[in-house]
Amino acid sequence: MSDWPTSTIDRRELLSRLFPAPDEYLFISGLAGPARDAADLTGDGDNLYTMAGTMGAAVSMGLGVALSAPEARVAVITGDGELLMNVGALCTVANQTPANLSIVCIDNACHGETGGQVGMTAGLTNLTAIAAGAGIGSVMTISSAEEIEVAVGFLTDSAAPRFLCCRVIAGPPVNFNRDLDLARCRRRFRNAYLGAAE
Amino acid sequence: MIAPAVPTPEEWPETVFAVLIEAGVWLFAYVPDAGNKHLIELADAHPVARTVLLTTEEEGIALCAGADLVGKRAILCMQSSGVGNCPNFLTLAKGAGFPILMMVSMRGGPKEQNPWQKPMGEAVEPILHAMGVATFAIHTSQELGPAMETAIHAAFETGQAAALVLTQTFLGVKQF
């Protein structure tokens, strides 16, 4: 097994500290815990599209947004299981070099949504090393609450695309019930963005 | 608008590319295949169009959906085998109404020389139909223009995901 430092980050307060001004971003989140955390951050706002299926789609959808809206700041909120299901997308991001895309992985080293089964990042798999190997130039891992402030600077000041792996305590996400109507949420996001762009 | 002349087999990528650009498509996501090689070269050479090389076709479904979230149009190009990598992500088409437009270059047809291509080749249309994607098979140059017009309208005007299926009758059969 790996010798990860014991995390002291409670995910339920992570995103609000990483993104003190969430209205300045367009957010895409993968399914399960990261979607609940992201919905809590934005109040399930219309600058967020969350998934509750299509595991592995978040990074690619975020890349599509980032390339198509280069003036926007785009952040993908994903988890270790979701990211590993389509880890090749990190290679695609790296080679497209979007200057407006951040990927934040909430790595709890388990599959929290389905019963807390142990995940591969509890073992030998290192997502930050994978992101660096994919070619993403700005990568960072944090595992203590004290490091969150450093990560805030990383998300604003390092060269994008950037990848931030947040090793968190394997506790529950925020208990936030978001809108699961995938078609309505598409229209909500689109109308808000296109209305704001006019 | 004057209807475009029926293209020769050699110049169909120029026709397809021109129609897509005219329709506002700017993002060309693809997994390389002989059937989309020239189309992607045309997109690479275009001042506005952007190509995105993928590691697996399913990435492209999500990428096209992301473009739509901010009002931009995209197409996903792949070989028939890649359709098998897409069904779960096609939830975004069937469930959410994202306007997914695909171009599938076929393998595994009647004169296919590689037996590994046959199972997926035969499953392309059943899989796409099961996940809510309408298919428009192109066998001759005469069918290309009308099929493209219908597929583009379906995707971007009505939210009906659509796939242009370029058959081996149209593309020619790879020789081994």
Number of strands of chain A: 8
Rg over CA atoms of chain B? 15 Å
Which strand order do you get reading across the main beta sheet of chain B? 2-1-3-4-6-5
Q: Give the oligomer, counting copies of the same chain as homo and different chains as hetero.
A: heterodimer
**CATH homologous superfamily placement of chain B:** Thiamin diphosphate (ThDP)-binding fold, Pyr/PP domains
Major sheet of chain A: size, sense and barrel closure? 6 strands, parallel
- Topology of chain B as a string of helices (H) and strands (E): HEHEHEHEHEHEH
Stated plainly, the CATH topology of chain B is called Rossmann fold
Mean pLDDT of chain B: 94
General form of chain A: globular
Number of helices of chain B: 7
Task: Report the sheet-strand fraction of chain A.
Answer: 15-25%
Share of helix of chain A, binned: 25-40%
The CA-CA distance between the termini of chain A, in Å, is 53 Å
Order of helices and strands of chain A: HEHEHEHHEEEHEHEH
- SS-based class of chain A: alpha/beta
**% residues in beta strands of chain B:** 15-25%
Broad structural category of chain B: alpha/beta
C-alpha Rg of chain A (nearest Å): 15 Å
Please, could you describe this protein's structure?
The complex is a heterodimer of chains A (198) and B (176). Chain A is of the alpha/beta class and 198 residues long. Helix content of chain A is 37%, strand content 19%. Chain A has helices at 14-18, 33-42, 58-68, 80-85, 89-96, 127-134, 148-157, 182-197, and strands at residues 25-29, 48-50, 73-79, 101-107, 110-111, 117-118, 138-142, 162-167. In chain A, the strands form two sheets. In chain A, strands 2-1-3-4-8-7 form a six-stranded parallel sheet, sandwiched between helices. A two-stranded antiparallel ribbon of chain A has the order 5-6. In chain A, helix 3 (58-68) runs parallel beside helix 5 (89-96) and helix 5 (89-96) packs across helix 6. The termini of chain A are far apart. Chain B has 176 residues and is of the alpha/beta class. Chain B has a single domain (10-171), classed as Rossmann fold (3-Layer(aba) Sandwich), CATH 3.40.50.970. Chain B has seven helices and six strands. Chain B has helices spanning 12-22, 37-45, 57-69, 91-94, 118-130, 141-158, 168-171; strands spanning 25-30, 50-53, 73-79, 101-105, 134-138, 162-166. The longest helix of chain B is centred in the C-terminal third of the chain and has 18 residues, at 141-158. The model of chain B has no long low-confidence stretch (mean pLDDT 94). The interface between A and B is medium-sized, with 36 and 32 residues.
